Amino acid sequence: MGVKRIAVIGAGVSGLGAVKCCLEEGLEPTCFEKRSDIGGLWKYEEIPKSGNLGIYKSLTCNTSKEMTAFSDYPIPDHFPNYMHNSKMMEYLKMYARHFGLMKHIQFQTNVCSIKKRPDFSSSGQWDVVVETEEMQKTYIFDGIMVCSGHYTEKYFPLQDFEGISKFQGSCLHTWEYKHPDNFVGKRVAVIGLGNSGADVASEISRVADQFEDGTKENIDIVIFATGYKLSFPFLSDASGVLDNQYSMFKYVFPPELEKPTLAFIGILQPAGALLPTSELQSRWVVHVFKGLKKLPSRRAMIADINRKKQIMAKDSKKSLKGHRRVTFIDYMDEIASEIGVKPNLLSLLLWDTKLAKEVFCGPCTSYQYRLQGPGKWHGARAAILTQRERILKPLRTRVVKQSHLSPLSWVKSVCVVIFFFIFVLVIMHITSH
């Protein structure tokens, strides 16, 4: 049997990681991206093209660079710890160039449909119809990695607000917001306090008029920071693949398929960075596609899904994405165990105490999932041991030459400290009387 051909839908952070993981395991990926560049939502557009969701100009990553980095490609040490979207795009382009990903991406290509082939029960193959420049083409793939993300369709619940039809002002969703210039002197209400709602409200508050809570006001503009809905229009006729809650085994594999050749990457909501989470998912998926790892039975997968739903029902607030929330470290360890790359702390403690201390006591960065097993990276140890240096580097705005003090200098310094301490005590004694 020849090299398996894999379709990757989307060239954002999840899609780039998926393409790289396919190449790493000897698969042949083809990535379809409807935009003209990589990065997905991280690509800022002042005027988004029709159908493209966008970000606001000031958007800054809310997870630190060490926690956000790909597992085998640390973010440059001089980059800020919390990167502006332009820096994030710069990093993604560096990653794509370094691993030669660009030649595997077809830009300005829209995926129209994904359907099982007639012999799917035996081959597991899919027919993928794409459109570019008003021309359609059909491909046959051995596996599909859906990396279009969970910011694909805005949730705009106007019908839930009484009297909205009588409102004389403007209503818009946060994806339409770019910068505060258009809101100078306006009376603006922001509905929703998620990540974007907090950012937009804070930014607009500097230029818009203010009003008191609990009062009735004539509002000019209402901005809905109400989030997004999952949407996979290319799978709309694939009955039996997904239920209305998008229930999947470990948030990746639909349990109802005869062959595990369809995977969804990065549609969960981790309490942490999405990039390393989706990358680890992709590493697991390519092993399943190659037959190196097996999924449990359909019954076992559904039982696991239902068990997690029950846990989420107790812990999560009622929201669109509550049933997809996961704890970052627990989930990363869970997927790492499936691949066989979860670090063995006991072994590290015996053979590399310094590394064990940093893995156990330091931040849970993704480099630790490259220390052993499939996809082992020889630079992982160094990346872990130098991660604190990369955190401090952008905070050092100037370099001071370190002087080597002589023993006499140390004595003088101690004497100065003692003198200062005695002086403070004397002053306190005088003032108390």
TrEMBL record:
Cofactor(s) annotated in UniProt: FAD
Membrane topology: Single-pass membrane protein
Key words, A-Z: Endoplasmic reticulum, FAD, Flavoprotein, Membrane, Monooxygenase, NADP, Oxidoreductase, Transmembrane, Transmembrane helix
InterPro entries per UniProt: FAD/NAD-bd_sf, Flavin_mOase, Flavin_mOase-like, FMO-like
MF annotations from Gene Ontology: flavin adenine dinucleotide binding; N,N-dimethylaniline monooxygenase activity; NADP binding; trimethylamine monooxygenase activity
Keyword Flavoprotein: yes
Transmembrane segments: 410-430
General function of this protein: Broad spectrum monooxygenase that catalyzes the oxygenation of a wide variety of nitrogen- and sulfur-containing compounds including xenobiotics. Catalyzes the S-oxygenation of hypotaurine to produce taurine, an organic osmolyte involved in cell volume regulation as well as a variety of cytoprotective and developmental processes.
Protein name, as recorded: Flavin-containing monooxygenase
Species in which this protein is naturally found: Mus caroli
Lineage of source species: Eukaryota, Metazoa, Chordata, Craniata, Vertebrata
